[in-house]
Predict the structure of L-fucose:H+ symporter permease.
Amino acid sequence: MNDILIPYLKEMFELKYWQAMLVQFAFFGAYFIGSLLYFLLSLRIGDPINKIGYQNGIVLGLFMASVGCFLFYPAALYGVYFFFLMALFVLGLGFTMLQIAANPYVSILGPEETASSRLNMSQAFNSLGTTVAPILGGYLVFEYFFSEGLGGEAVKIPYLLFGTVFLLMAIVFKLINLPEFSNKETTLKGMQVLKFRNLSWGTVAIFVYVGGEVAIGSFLINFIGLNEIMGLEEATAKNYLAYYWGGAMIGRFSGAISLSEMKTTRKYLMMIFTSVLSFGLIFSIASISIAEAWPYLLVILVNYAAFILGKSIAGRTLAIFAAGIISLLVLAMLTTGSIAMWALVGVGIFNSIMWPNIFTIAISGLGKYTSQGASLLVMSILGGALIPLLQGIAADVMGVQLSFIVPLCCYLYILAYGVMSHRWKKEEDKKEEEANTKVISMH
């Protein structure tokens, strides 16, 4: 919904690009502040989630998110931009708690080898929401309420509905029975968690990934609206957001299957089936013809080939997908018309496995430091606040199209992290094999 808010508030308050990007700065800045406070608290008293439980952590996050949504009412009532930013900040704090509690919880519910598969699956349903939201939210904001001349009411009513949903979800999660998990090992106070190179490098990878993904989504409507690209109105351009975020859904369902323990033939058939089903959902809600969307289908085929090349190895797949995004961004920057548009929209498909793969690689082997490490990773979501702001400044200076040099640099780092983590994994496997051989020879 932030991608809908940005052009709406930009027009409502007559903002520059960098000022409009304060929407993402406030929202994702909350991730940094919230997770920093969590991390500092864990250094002082131990892991808070381990004390209150993962289920209560999720409930707390949902409740805080509902409060953030309800704050849109006074923000719209008084029509002050700063009030909107404060509401987004509180909403972001709620999501911070959800990220710290839910991601590690999903990871530890089964074997470490299939943790990335489970995270891909949960993130795929997250992407289902980000696919539907731009269409539904864009209709409510740009066409239904705004066309009625309601001004601030255009966002007040939708966010009251969202707040009610979050509150109901908090009640449901409080009442249902979920498997309990607590780490019986005592978390040592201090900064020992940073000794893990996969985590320390991974925090930067999360920073640039979230920043790059959010920046592209934030500028997509404005990019499509450029005369040299498509020159579309906001109400029409919003439909392409469904393809951008829906691409992540396609890739994450495929990623969950790819990283699972299914037999190879069945695995690839299931990937094709879920891709067709997911595309059908996007196509049905975005009102864009097949004749126009054929380049997107081509990107899906390339993405399928990338999964095969990745061989279900997290680091290798991450590097290949980053290389795919870099290629698409270069294409979007150097071409015009529908080719540039679909190249940028297609980035969403390759973004799909990045969060779960980076997260899984980063917390692998952390043991008693898992939740503490997770708070550092969530802190790195700060990238979603700073990178769009940086691209906003670049857009004001060099234009929207060339400003995508900013996320391109982000994905160059992710490419390096994928390559390095794959190398680390092979080194660890070799050491483990040598250790096992030594034990066997001793016996």
Q: What stands out?
A: Residues 208 and 410 are 5 Å apart (CA to CA).
